[in-house]
Amino acid sequence: MQPFKKPIYVTRPLLPSIDNYIDRIEDIWESKWITNNGQQHQKLEEELKGYLKADNLSLINNGTIALQIALKALNLTGEVITTPFTFAATPHAISWNSLKPVFCDIVPETLNIDTDKIEGLVTEETSAILAVHVFGTPCNVEKIDEIARKYDLKIIYDGAHAFGTEINGTAIGNYGDITMYSFHATKLFNTIEGGALACSNENLKEKINLLRNFGIKNEEEVVSIGTNGKMNEFQAAMGLEVLKKVEEERRRRKEIKGVYHQELEDIDGISFIPESKDVKSSQQYLVIRINEEVFGLSRDEVYEKLKEYNVFSRKYFYPLCSNYEMYNDLSSSQKEKLPVANKIVKEVLALPFHGDLNKNDVIKICNIIKEL
């Protein structure tokens, strides 16, 4: 089988009509208001409140700063229980706030934090749970809420992959105290770089808005220590145009996912992350697990072989956060305490998944995998 003539990447940014984007840029030029809560910012925040069904939503300049602000806004101290199977920003945001990440193992089905193991990690120093909706699959939010209530803990959700995800019609941002969304270019919805925080009440939103703007209340008052987390007008303008295309992109990705499942689900040694009928998926990633003993090749070997055909998948998430040099000396990072995560991290592979793919592209990718 011949390689693809052009590279097939794991994801591609969803881009709007360049003419429509230029129209918005011209509006920005005319206003001479290019940042600091301008008209584009205000419009996007309002539209996303409706789309995400989040009454208290604050736009932030990226998802990592958003996580840092979320942790700061909740006045946390001591330890935060989280997952090792996530992007680096999750534990880094905890550490940036002078807090200690405590890693909890994951469940093999959803790859999310194992709620049956959280309670055993709670100590007098624990102040919060930071759980991740991995690949857009919701965590066991009911169990997490139960544990948090029992021990008086705060709940932050990293919803970087969960744009538009819902559980039985309830938007994912309505669970916990704060949910972070990422609007990075690799996400279903993007503002080039960007993010947002959805929180549980208006007072918390006011605090978040202060923190994203240096703690400045007005021209004469600075009431807290903050940072620069403001989204600029060019980011917001991109978001307003991209939002118009999200539902069509989600529909196309759902069709592409169907082709992948049809072609690969009966292949011994390859499995997909199960989806619940109660969940509206974000359609963020298409992920398979590769059982080396059954399939005959390791995940890493498949990853390298696909590159020979000009197909660029991703070992996502790899390496495990608990194995980073700055975290591997933590007691919770010991491999015997994270057996599932240390196994999964060697098996998971994200395949190309975006609306620019066509059915024949996907079938060819699947045939390459079948013939390895």
Automatic annotation (TrEMBL):
- Name this protein carries in UniProt: dTDP-4-amino-4,6-dideoxygalactose transaminase
Q: Which GO terms describe its biological process?
A: polysaccharide biosynthetic process
Gene3D superfamilies in the record: Type I PLP-dependent aspartate aminotransferase-like (Major domain)
Task: Give the domain of life.
Answer: Bacteria
User: List-wise, which residues carry N6-(pyridoxal phosphate)lysine?
Assistant: K187
Q: Which CDD domains does this UniProt record tie to the protein?
A: AHBA_syn (cd00616)
* Alphabetically ordered keywords of this record: Pyridoxal phosphate
What organism does the record attribute this protein to?
A: Halanaerobium saccharolyticum
Name the catalytic site residues. K187 (proton acceptor)
GO MF annotation terms: pyridoxal phosphate binding; transaminase activity
